[in-house]
Amino acid sequence: ITVSASLKDADKNAVSGLRLNAEVVTVPNATLSGSWTDNKDGTYSATYTATKAGSALKASLKLADWAKASESAAYSIGAGKAAQANSTLTTDKAAYTAGDSITVSASLKDADKNAVSGLKLNAEVVTVPNALQGSVWKDNGDGTYVATYTATKAGSALKATLKLADWAKASESAAYSIGAGKAVQANSTLTTDKAAYTAGDS
């Protein structure tokens, strides 16, 4: 963010030679990079780095002898790209039985820990081993996303993963397990080792 100040006296003469800093200039949701430059013509400039997302933000300038501050026009800061280091993927339980519903939640944040919404999560970026997706991913609009899956195949030490296109590696959930469900007649069998026996055979 490039912030510029133009200072003039009561007769509109340019005023140079002042030192602008954080005590007189406030730029919400941003940090000063370096220091203010006096351009010697009544104008001053500085560069800030946007950090926290927000809207209707206004930079302000108030010199010691001013009764009130001068404000910039409003500006907004949107979240950056989701960063793997600040994003998480969780399941609602650590143990399931085949047939159970698994609620999977993702929390996506950028490098400055701002919530990142507006992304489309699907089977290409989220993997939930031994489960079938039961609902589309819902964007809650606050950087969190949720979907339900159905546990299918028994397994242990399973981990759901989330990997966006520009991430070097995936984020993993804590491990979960899926146990076998109740025996069902349709999938169960009873057999003998032969089709014919003689009395006394075992």
Question: How would you describe the overall organization of this protein?
Answer:
This protein is about 0% helix and about 40% strand. With about 200 residues, the protein is mainly beta. The strands form six sheets. Strands 9, 11, 13, 14 and 15 form a five-stranded antiparallel beta sheet that branches. The relative contact order is 0.14.
The helix-and-strand class reads mainly beta
SSE string, helix = H, strand = E?
A: EEEEEEEEEEEEEEEEEEE
Shape: rod-shaped
Query: Helical segment tally?
Result: 0
Q: In angstroms, what is the radius of gyration?
A: 31 Å
Percentage of residues assigned to helices: under 10%
The rounded distance between the terminal residues' Cα atoms is: 87 Å
Strand content: 35-45%
The biggest sheet, with number of strands, parallel, antiparallel or mixed sense and barrel status, is: 5 strands, antiparallel
Low-confidence stretches: none
- Mean pLDDT across the residues is 96
Number of strands: 19
Secondary structure: elements and pairs:
Layout: E1 2-6, E2 25-26, E3 30-38, E4 43-50, E5 54-57, E6 60-61, E7 70-71, E8 75-77, E9 88-91, E10 95-97, E11 101-107, E12 126-127, E13 131-133, E14 138-139, E15 144-151, E16 155-158, E17 161-162, E18 171-172, E19 176-179
Parallel strand pairs: 10-19
Antiparallel strand pairs: 1-4, 2-6, 3-4, 5-8, 6-7, 9-11, 11-15, 12-17, 13-15, 14-15, 16-19, 17-18
